[in-house]
Design goal:
Structural class: alpha+beta
Shape: flat
Strand content: 15-25%
Mean pLDDT: 87
Distance between the termini: 18 Å
Largest sheet: 4 strands, antiparallel
């Protein structure tokens, strides 16, 4: 039962999915384990491992993956049984929402609903029903785990005790890390350029409506959306999606099939949208995006605006948080105080995590300083201007409680949760009927399960 908490998180969730299509059947299916009235099939394990690989995790597969994934399923089934005993309720609406998200993910992966149904050999409704029980069990297991761990907390004294047990030669070494806050302004193209772009889009609309061109052909030629350009501007969307620009999304569900919208302005630029098909809250659309180009003059206007903001900060006339709220156009950081975060969500960044322009802007800054306005191009190719405030900088150091308390506390909490789960399972496994096929008797990780198994 080692690393039980980590095992549940990393394996049981994958084990609860079903592969849409398998290239070939390897062996005949059979029951390989049972907890209470919950059975585990060999195909559950094979499909879970295949799904893990399909999601790019092949290099992180645990040793003896069949043993590990079977334990993941045993853990989940036990939690489900206890959830039923404790009358924990998972609402149908919660399951339906999870199913809808999964199906939308498959549609994005396979390109369209039609292709997905062809590969699966089933309708969307049938695919959802195939997944329903697995999703229900996953939600039940998550609820039960949350109930077991709901009162697990860490006190400062416990964190200190945890840290003191770490061998000194095993303490992590951290390179210098920094915390940054940014204020970003998007240069605005002038009115004449906007009008020219709008005229272009209306011209594309007329060409399609007159039958002179096909929408997807124009999208491939002229759209400036790198995410859909090569696919003829196509996206699969759902009314409940939260990732879309509100103006763009509102226009989608006002269209009839085949209809092309008027020119729509979003935070990304100007669009025309064609509704290809719609089924309830799901829709297939195409769009053409044009981004008005900005000149050096517009960039300089944005720089002048941020130079004024920088003056407020340097003279302590305004805190950085207020500057972000009032002046920043960057939605990804505007509502977290302008904080630049790493991919793991941490606010502490190593130098090698920063783009080269940002490194250059920080070259001569001390903690509490604000950079001069800097022009840069983001990952979507947009031309932006920013100022950056250096909130803190750590020196290279060996892990310690003063500088790294939050990191240590998080590890300590995860360890405490793991021990809580291990204790809970030792107490509850004897109360379940457990059956495991003897072909897995050589799996070291299943020794505790075999001790409580009817196969003994």
């Amino acid at each position: 039962m080692n690393k039980l908490y980590k095992l549940f998180l990393s394996i049981a969730l994958f084990s609860s999915t079903i592969a849409i299509a398998q290239p070939k059947k390897v062996i005949a299916d059979k029951i390989i384990a049972q907890v209470g009235d919950k059975i585990i099939l060999r195909s559950d394990i094979i499909n879970a491992i295949a799904d893990y690989k399909r999601q790019g995790q092949e290099n992180s597969l645990p040793p003896n993956p069949e043993c590990a994934f079977l334990e993941g399923q045993l853990i989940q089934k036990s939690l489900v049984i206890q959830a039923e005993r404790d009358s924990l309720v998972v609402g149908d609406d919660e399951i339906d929402a999870a199913l809808d998200n999964q199906i939308r993910g498959f549609i994005r992966e396979y390109g369209s609903q039609q292709v997905l149904e062809e590969i699966a050999g089933k309708t969307i409704y049938q695919i959802k029903e195939d997944f329903r029980q697995n999703f229900k069990e996953r939600k039940q297991a998550e609820q039960m785990r949350a109930k077991i761990l709901e009162n697990v907390k860490m006190t400062p004294n416990e964190v200190k005790a945890f840290f003191e047990l770490i061998p000194k030669d095993s303490l992590s070494f951290y390179e210098s890390e920094i915390e940054l806050t940014q204020v970003v302004v998007t240069p605005k193209a002038n009115k004449d350029v906007d009008e020219y772009i709008i005229k272009q889009l209306y011209d594309y609309k007329k060409q399609v409506e007159a039958g002179q061109k096909k929408f997807d052909q124009l999208a491939k030629l002229f759209s400036e959306d790198p995410g859909s350009k090569e696919n003829g501007g196509q996206y699969n969307v759902n009314r409940n999606d939260k990732i879309w620009d509100p103006a763009f999304f509102s226009a989608v569900f006002k269209l009839k099939e085949g209809q092309i919208s008027s020119v729509i302005k979003s935070k990304f630029g100007y669009h025309i949208i064609q509704l290809v098909s719609r089924s309830g809250d799901d829709a297939v659309i195409r769009h053409i995006l044009k981004v008005p180009p900005v000149t050096e003059e517009e960039v300089n206007i944005a720089k002048a605006k941020l130079d004024t903001v920088r003056g407020y900060l340097v003279k302590h006339m305004m805190p950085i948080g207020e500057a972000v709220t009032r002046f920043s156009d960057d939605e990804s950081s505007k509502f977290n105080g302008g904080q630049i975060q790493g991919r793991d969500g941490s606010s502490f960044l190593a130098i090698d995590q920063l783009d080269k322009d940002l490194v250059l802007a920080l070259k001569d800054l001390n903690v509490g300083d604000c950079s001069k306005p800097q022009y840069y191009t983001d990952e979507r190719g947009r031309k932006l201007v920013r100022i950056v405030y250096l909130k803190s900088r750590t020196s290279p150091h060996r892990e310690n409680l003063k500088d790294d308390y939050n990191k240590v506390a998080q590890r300590a909490l995860e360890t405490k949760k793991q021990k809580k789960l291990e204790t809970w399972f030792k107490e509850h496994l004897p109360t379940y009927y457990i059956l495991i096929d003897k072909e897995f008797s050589a799996c070291p990780s299943l020794s505790t399960w075999f001790k409580n198994s009817a196969t003994n």
